[in-house]
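Amino acid chain:
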Amino acid sequence: MQPSSFLPHHPCKVQAKESARLFEVISANPEVTDIEVLSDANESIGYVSTEAIVLASTRALRECFAFYNNVLQTVDDSLTIVNAEGTVVNWNKQAETMYQIPSEDILHHHITRHFKKDAVMLLKSIHDGSSIARHYNQPRAGAHVLVNTSPVMLDGQIIGGISAEKDISDVVRLHDQLSNTTAHLHDLETELYTEQQEDPFYKIKGRSAAIMQAMQLTRKVAHTDATLLITGESGVGKELFAEAVHRASPRAGGPFIALNCGAIPAALFESELFGYEKGAFTGAIHEGKKGKMDAAEGGTLFLDEIGELPLDQQVKLLRVLQEKQFYRVGGHKPIATDVRIVAATNRDLETMVEAGQFRQDLFYRLNVVSVPIPPLRERKEDIPELAQLFLKEFAVKYGKPLPELAPKTLILLLDYAWPGNIRQLRNLMERLIILTDQERIEPEHLPEGYQPNQLPFAAQTPAARPLAARSEYDELVEALRTTYGNKSAAAQLLGISRVTLYNRMKKYNMEKG
């Protein structure tokens, strides 16, 4: 190798992630002043001085720190960083604002100087060596946050931890206001019930775009005599829609008769629907018996779970729809009928038609107008209202005080996937009223299966940023995301009216629903 003085000098540029390793090498070899530079062919082409490496590494670290510090001060979440002993080493501006603690009062002090130890999830994360995601916490009086924490590792050792906290105090405040308002409405039960009776759709609750669209379509067809097919998963409230159609129709003065096609054995279905003549079969009542079709005369017959109807009975129902008449079992005289048919199913009838399990002609007769009812997981913004209504219903039924849902309980309900839909939510609220004696329903009052680490839970909603000084569009998006699309709550959060909220949504071509 040529003497270093005869080799050209090369400039040095270092990446931040290489700096620590280079410092270690140079510190371990203080006598080395030059480091040889090799080409891709492993040939000596020059040198760099250790002084140049130190200067370049120092600048790389300074640049990295500048970016790191800018990120900490730019994000809208409150960020806290502590070392392994729990001493605060970084406290961003958002944390100062959220907790009203200046950096100079908390930096270089233990985190428990300002917070109770059992309220600091960051210490638990460091102690356990595990991350915590979307955890509701109340670290100080009046502060409600969703916490994400993670330990910081270096060479396999925990050297500290970082916590990002989203302020949801406004959402909790709005929820408390809603609970208080609902408690006052509890005293007006009789008056409100009387007023609601005037609306045929009063039993269908919610203001989400999905449910309003289904109601709008149902209202349009209700005043006609057209056959209606209501589709949707079990528990979404298909029978409530069928009842609303009946009450809103000219047949409202007639009977509403419901028949579950899946609950009746195939051998008995025909006699249950059409009735039978005396002596029609062994065990029959001597004078015969009228069926559901007779009972629904002049009104509406609701056939639930129509997909379970046996093929041999499908043709007989088709005859009723086509000819407006039927025969009783054992009878030979056609009986004219004036009944509107509303059917419902949680199955895909078109697929059943293709598989030969359902008659195509009957499907077309039933499917004059189809109304799909959305599952509860697609209308999550309705959950707070529905939960409050069910709590009130069962508090009245069982003569118990009306409790409120704790904020962290509401968050669990919003994140849950609800495979049983509204029926499952209603049953849960009834259970809570019966078994809970406290004024506030906490997560521990929920039965097994409703915790975030227990399926089924919907995909977590990305953490929304707290509202701050930023563009009108960003504020609007964050308010809607924070309140899960609930327009009234979003308007309150922004301090504007619903009309102003809708005007802004229209301004930015955002869907009103």
Q: What stands out?
A: The mean pLDDT is 83. The chain has 20 helices and 18 strands. The two ends are 76 Å apart (CA to CA).
